[in-house]
């Protein structure tokens, strides 16, 4: 595995905890936002991997924090072959490359446009893991990202849905059960 490959990852299974994640299509901006993981004060932005239409924000530990797809839903390519893997083990995934640009990925969607597969490579998938509740990452046999699948996209008007999602995550983090 080469550290020069910006999409090289280290996969640790099983994941220590379930990670929240969901796609929010911003109707007025024609952009898709996918927060990945809890929004807590200890996690800070460190770097991005970027193409013309996709940005992956990564924290200091190499964990994916946020995905932005700036290409409008109308230009995503329709496919009937967009299926969820039978099993995607929850995993802690760490990106090994930072601060670089990526070639433009293919953006594939289902007929209802509620799933999006961001395809970075035509390489065969060797392993698929769940990095968040609705986010599945596929890698090749060298642990380089082949694609990221967002399995549950909701339409969001004026950012209301994403704001509610983030608020619910903060409330869950604030609740600490007494032992």
Task: Write up this protein.
With 179 residues, the chain is mainly beta. The chain has one domain. Helix content is 8%, strand content 39%. It is built from one helix and 16 strands. It has one helix spanning 160-174; strands spanning 9-12, 23-26, 31-35, 45-50, 54-59, 64-69, 77-78, 89-90, 92-95, 100-101, 106-109, 116-119, 127-132, 135-139, 145-150, 153-156. It has a seven-stranded mixed β-sheet with strand order 10-4-5-6-3-2-16, with helices on one face. A hairpin with a 6-residue loop joins strand 11 (106-109) and strand 12 (116-119). The radius of gyration is 16 Å and the shape is globular.
Number of strands: 16
Given as residue ranges, the uncertain stretches (5+ residues, pLDDT < 50) are none
Biggest sheet descriptor: 7 strands, mixed
Structural class: mainly beta
Radius of gyration over all CA atoms, rounded: 16 Å
Domains, number:
1
Strand order of the largest sheet: 10-4-5-6-3-2-16
* Total helical segments: 1
Work out the strand percent.
35-45%
Multimeric status of the protein:
single chain
Q: Can you give the helix content as a percent range?
A: under 10%
Inertia-based shape: globular
């Amino acid at each position: 595995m080469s550290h020069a490959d910006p999409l090289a990852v280290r996969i640790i299974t099983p994941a220590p905890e379930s990670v929240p994640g969901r796609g929010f299509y911003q109707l007025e901006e024609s952009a898709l936002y996918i927060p990945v993981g809890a929004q807590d004060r200890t996690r800070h932005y460190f770097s991005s991997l970027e193409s013309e239409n996709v940005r992956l924000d990564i924290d200091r530990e190499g964990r994916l924090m946020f995905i932005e797809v700036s290409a409008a839903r109308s230009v995503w390519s329709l496919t009937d072959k967009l299926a969820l893997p039978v099993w995607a083990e929850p995993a802690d995934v760490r990106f090994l490359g930072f601060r670089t640009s990526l070639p433009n990925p293919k953006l594939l969607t289902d007929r209802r446009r509620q799933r999006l597969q961001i395809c970075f490579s035509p390489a065969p998938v060797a392993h698929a893991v769940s990095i968040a509740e609705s986010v599945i990452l596929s890698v090749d046999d060298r642990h380089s990202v082949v694609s990221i699948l967002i399995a549950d996209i909701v339409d969001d008007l004026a950012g209301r849905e994403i704001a509610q999602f983030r608020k619910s995550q903060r409330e869950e983090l604030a609740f600490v059960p007494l032992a």
